[in-house]
Amino acid sequence: MTEQERLAALTQILSDLLGDDSITLAMDTVREDVDGWDSFTYINFIVAVEAEFGVKFRIADVESFPNVGAIVKAIGAAAGR
Amino acid sequence: MLFNSYSFIFGFLPAVLIGFYVLGSRRRDWALLWLTAASLLFYAWWRPINVLLIAPSILINYSLARALEQTGEAKPAFARTILIAGIVFNLCFLGYFKYLNFAESALNDAFGTGFVLTQLILPLGISFITFQKIAFLVDVQAGRVSRFSLADYGLFVLFFPQLIAGPIVHYREMMPQFRAVPCRYDPENVAVGISLFFFGLAKKVILADPMSQLVAPLYARAAAGGAQSMTEAWIAALGFTLQIYFDFSGYSDMALGLARFFGIKLPVNFNSPLQATSIIDFWLRWHVSLTRFLTAYIYNPLTLNLTRKRLAAGKPIFGGRNTSVPAFLNLLAMPTILTMLVSGIWHGAGYTYILWGLLHGVLLCINHAWRLIRPRIWPNAKVYSARMAPVGFLLTFLSVVAAMVMFRAPTLSATLMLWKGMVGAYGVTLPAAVFSRLGPIAGWLSAIGVQPAWTSGSLLLTAVVRIGCLLAIALLMPNTLRMLAAFEPAIGVKPDRTPSRVARLFTWAPDGAWALGLACIALAGILSLGQLSEFLYWQF
Fold first, then answer.
1. DSSP codes, A4-73
2. Which alpha helices (DSSP H) does B168-229 contain, by range?
């Protein structure tokens, strides 16, 4: 799976969570860029991503992902292990 | 020592700054050590014995952090034990001072006993300091902190601008700044620092403190069992909301300004919360650093674990608009209410604080539930937010104001009394003096149930004018973060790309007009220092 495909999957998950189909994520998107993507929704998003890709992030990493790209890369790294 | 005292503004602060700049021009580490020592003096000023409490706690925490760092990833189980021991130690430390007297009186109430322990006096800022220490230990264990000495850790815990009432800071956002800061006099830092400090001082002594004199008798009367008419109950509710608003907003500005004198930026802590259009939004603007702490160290780990467990058990998890009711209750409602319960307990040892936390937890859950249900009823998110933002604002405002009554009222019965008053259970009153001057309107008013009251007309007028002015400032003006946005007044604050006309009018600049304006604000603030009053958040 390429990074672009992962990004598309993340976009779909977040759109479902927020009930907003107009969301488009990019590698450099940060939480503040997306309306309603608060800390509460964030954790649900992370678990949904874990479930979708069958990976498990460390809580310390979850707290410190700087942008969407970092999540995409972390999925790649976890899947490669 | 209070930020709003002559001894702080004209004695302590100038002395510490001169020492810092002079030492900093020779050796940076001397300047930082001076800052740590000055912070300890600041803490000791109020009651020197406090130092005997905080110093051992710093040493124990530092030793535990060292042990954690050395154990590292080699022995994860051992590291975990050290971390848990550290958290338990800090919570016991807090619990002993903050909750022992409460537990004792609760036991006495429940069993009709009469145990009397010594009345413990709360060490200043202990709740803030404790949370910060716990966060540090967790960060060390998670590998988010590398390289720290006792001098680093001491400065991180004691740094006086944020020692007593936050913001609750993270080591990883403070220490790189302390390591890089030149420790020299810098005109821009001093100009921004002085402006933030005096904006904050004026908010505290000119806007917040007089409000306290206005509302205190109303709460005292409610506590004594006196019924309040709708007029008085609303003055009490709005008045206290605005008092704590400007008290905390002023404190937060002063903390930002003081840190900036040393070239340090603190995180955002207060961002026009009364302009929030939902309760979730409110908590992202009110006491931001506490919300951040509770989210990172309680809510997120709890939800993450619960969600993974549910998933492993084959039960449906949180699925956006398709979320099932059990998933919502387990994964969102329960952790949210629990987190807000901790927030309530953290704020104070008393039933009203605990219930206040629970109330906000329930409000947050309603907000989250609505976010899930809304797309089914009103699919177009953009049109929805454009049309419903005013409704959201009004509901949020009313909820926050009503909950603030509980935060301030000394007992639950006083809270209920005031709430009943707010919805008109004890009628509507106008001061007799006003009533008698209304002519024929007085007749219509009494026909719909408005009564003349004991309160004086000038008291009502003062209340209405003050509440009106403060509300206008809180709701319509750009806040200090926005005014100084071009100079990054707090970590990560950036200027607006398209500022409104009002925002442009209030944009701070280092020029003559602002110097004159700020000099007036500073003078007014300093002249109002007469009646000393503590910051509300210093008791937490």
1. HHHHHHHHHHHHHHHT-TT----TT--GGGSTT--HHHHHHHHHHHHHHHT----HHHHHH--SHHHHHH
2. 171-180, 187-202, 209-223
Within 183-202 of B, beta carbons closer than 8 Å to A belong to none
Q: Which band of pLDDT confidence, cut at 50, 70 and 90, is reported for residue B321?
A: low
Percent above pLDDT 70 for chain B: 94
Residues 6+ apart with CB under 8 A from A1: A79
| Inter-chain residue contact B304 with A62, CB threshold 8 Å | yes
* CA B268 – CA B286 distance, rounded (Å): 10
Structure tokens given for B166 = 């936050």
| Structure-block tokens of residue B105 | 């009186």
Per residue in B147-166, pLDDT tens?
889 999 999 999 999 988 87
A5 shares contact with chain B (CB less than 8 Å) = no
On whether the CB atoms of residues B236 and B219 are closer than 8 A, the answer is: yes
- Tracing tokens 């007469």 back to the chain, one arrives at B530
Using an 8 Å Cβ cutoff, are B101 and B119 in contact?
A: yes
B124 within 8 A of B2, measured Cβ to Cβ: no
The helix (H) or strand (E) run that includes residue B90 is: helix B76-111
Sign of the dihedral defined by the CA atoms of residues A7, A11, A12, A16, in that order: positive
- Dmax over CA atoms of chain B, in Å, equals 85
A78 exposed, middle or buried (CB, 10 Å; 0-12, 13-18, 19+)? middle
Of B143, B280, B382, Cβ closest to residue A60:
B143
Read off the pLDDT of residues B349-371 as tens digits, 9 standing for 90 and up: 788 899 999 999 999 999 989 98
pLDDT of B254: 95
Taking only the tens place, the pLDDT of each residue in B193-208 is: 999 999 999 999 999 9
pLDDT tens across B390-431, in order?
A: 999 999 999 999 999 999 998 899 999 999 999 988 888 888
Q: What are the C-alpha distances in Å from B226 to residues A20, B194, B235, B420, B508? A: 50, 45, 15, 12, 47
Taking the CA of residue A23 and the nearest CA in chain B, the distance in Å comes to 11
Burial class (CB in 10 A: 0-12, 13-18, 19+), B383: exposed
In this complex, the residue of A38, A47, A58 whose CB is nearest that of residue B284 is: A38
Boundaries of every domain in chain A: 3-80
Q: Contact, B141 vs B68, CB < 8 A?
A: yes
Q: B163 and B58 in contact (C-beta within 8 Å)?
A: no
Residue A52: closest C-alpha in chain B: B311
pLDDT tens for each residue of B477-499: 999 999 999 899 999 888 888 88
Alpha-carbon distance of B40 to B62, in angstroms, equals 17
Q: Find the radius of gyration of the CA atoms of chain A.
A: 12
Contact A40 B321 (CB under 8 A): no
Q: What six digits make up the tokens of A37?
A: 């993507």
Judged by DSSP in three states, B452 sits in: strand
Distance (Å, rounded) from C-alpha B408 to C-alpha B417? 13
Can you tell me the mean pLDDT for B29-52?
Answer: 89
Tell me how far apart the alpha carbons of residues B321 and A36 are, in angstroms, rounded to a whole number.
14
d(CA B20, CA B504): 35
Task: Look up the CATH number of domain A3-80.
Answer: 1.10.1200.10
* Phi-psi region at B126: left, alpha or beta (left = phi > 0; alpha = psi -120 to 50): alpha
**B295 closest CB neighbour out of A39, A48, A64:** A39
